[in-house]
């Protein structure tokens, strides 16, 4: 099924040439059968003026991230010019049960401001709701990306959570002092002071990998992870996943080391956080050419403890990077 639309024409701020104001017929249809490389090519144009520079990122990296995001090309959609069939906008969606996730959205600069994202969703939503019984679509958007927030709001998405990304070359806590103290580390947990060294940390932290991880026993998150950190998505690449936990505690880290991603965390005390992050550092810093680490799931409401989760990550050189909105749209009314 495809839709033919004539998007409203607005003066295009990227080009003063009057020809861009001509009315043009746009076709919206599923991406089923499309070579993912064609979507990557359109993404490169759409993201050519983006906050983050993707020009050095390989095609395969995009495609593998979409696979990990559980992308279903049949239920992803694009806009094409009728005149020459060129892809000018796209919405790529991952699907996990009744939930969908907007992995990537883009409109090439010459076609922006014509509500193409809204038009693609107007085509997609009834199909997602009726054929796939999708109840909710979620996405993340960098909070300063006003155009995108406006476009998603016009579709009916609303801001659900504020997320903080922390990023950096993870470093063991107070490395210099550690050396001076012959590898001793002081962890303070309220009134108690525990002196612990790296060997003890290694003994305290249990690590499971890939198929050995029993996700059913992974403790519930204090706050839900971001889509790519969900169990369904982690399982698409399960041999890359590492589960670090403490016996007799619900604290844990779920890490995708190759991507340098802390996909999920739970810290029930600052001592737990320090032990788990230090253990990650001990193993990680032994590796050659380690990837910078990032964690993208810190819910802004998770600042009740002292020190805050942000500060705990900060001790290990993971500093606040950008903030994101998690936006959702509920489709239940379309299912009836
Ligand atoms: C974000 C993006 C997908 C929006 O696409 P779109 O379908 O063109 O969006 P809309 O037509 O709904 O426009 C959204 C807002 O931006 C304005 N705008 C964006 N580009 C414009 C342009 N070239 N000319 C005029 N207005 C423009 C619109 O006026 C509108 O604001 P308004 O509601 O106050 O009028 C597109 O700008 C894009 O691809 N950006 C780069 C990649 C990106 O940021 N992707 C999203 C990552 S989460």
Q: What can you see in these coordinates?
A:
By secondary structure, this protein is α+β, with helices and mostly antiparallel strands. The chain has two domains: 2-161 and 327-335, Aminopeptidase, CATH 3.40.630.30; 170-316, no CATH class. It is built from ten helices and 15 strands. Helix 1 crosses helix 2 (59-68), helix 3 (116-132) crosses helix 4 and helix 6 packs across helix 8. The radius of gyration is 23 Å and the shape is elongated. The protein starts with a strand and ends with a helix. The model is unreliable at 10-21 and 178-184 (pLDDT under 50). The structure holds coenzyme A. Coenzyme A binds at residues 10, 12-14, 46-47, 50, 105-107, 112-118, 141, 145, 147-148, 150-151, 154.
Tell me briefly what this model is:
This protein has helices at residues 36-46, 59-68, 116-132, 146-155, 175-180, 198-204, 231-235, 270-284, 309-315, 332-335; strands at 2-5, 26-30, 77-81, 87-96, 99-107, 136-142, 158-168, 184-189, 192-197, 205-209, 241-246, 252-256, 261-266, 293-299, 319-330. With 336 residues, it is an alpha+beta fold. Helix 1 packs across helix 2, helix 3 crosses helix 4 and helix 6 (198-204) packs across helix 8.
């Amino acid at each position: 099924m495809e839709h033919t639309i004539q998007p409203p024409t607005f003066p295009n701020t990227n080009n003063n040439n009057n020809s861009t104001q001509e009315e043009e017929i746009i076709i919206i249809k599923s991406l089923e059968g499309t070579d993912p490389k064609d979507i990557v090519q359109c993404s490169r144009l759409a993201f050519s003026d983006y906050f983050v520079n993707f020009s050095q990122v390989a095609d395969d990296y995009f495609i593998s991230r979409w696979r990990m995001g559980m992308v279903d090309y049949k239920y992803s959609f694009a806009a094409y010019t009728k005149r020459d069939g060129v892809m000018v906008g796209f919405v790529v969606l991952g699907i996990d049960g009744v939930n969908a996730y907007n992995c990537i959205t883009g409109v090439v600069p010459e076609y922006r401001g014509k509500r193409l994202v809204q038009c693609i969703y107007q085509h997609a939503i009834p199909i997602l709701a009726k054929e796939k019984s999708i109840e909710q679509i979620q996405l993340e958007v960098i909070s300063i990306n006003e155009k995108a927030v406006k476009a998603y709001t016009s579709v009916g998405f609303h801001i659900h959570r504020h997320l903080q990304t922390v990023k950096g070359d993870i470093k063991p806590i107070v490395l210099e002092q550690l050396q001076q103290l012959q590898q001793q580390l002081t962890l303070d947990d309220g009134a108690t002071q525990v002196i612990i060294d790296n060997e003890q940390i290694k003994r305290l932290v249990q690590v499971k990998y890939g198929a050995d991880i029993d996700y059913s026993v992974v403790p519930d998150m204090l706050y839900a992870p971001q889509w790519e950190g969900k169990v369904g998505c982690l399982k698409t690449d399960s041999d890359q996943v590492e589960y670090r936990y403490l016996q007799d505690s619900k604290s844990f880290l779920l890490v995708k080391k190759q991507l340098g991603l802390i996909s999920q965390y739970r810290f029930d005390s600052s001592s737990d956080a320090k032990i788990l992050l230090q253990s990650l550092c001990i193993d990680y810093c032994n590796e050659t050419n380690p990837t910078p680490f990032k964690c993208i799931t810190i819910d802004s409401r998770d600042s009740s403890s002292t020190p805050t989760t942000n500060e705990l990550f900060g001790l290990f050189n993971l500093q606040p990077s950008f903030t994101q909105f998690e936006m959702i749209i509920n489709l239940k009314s379309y299912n009836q």
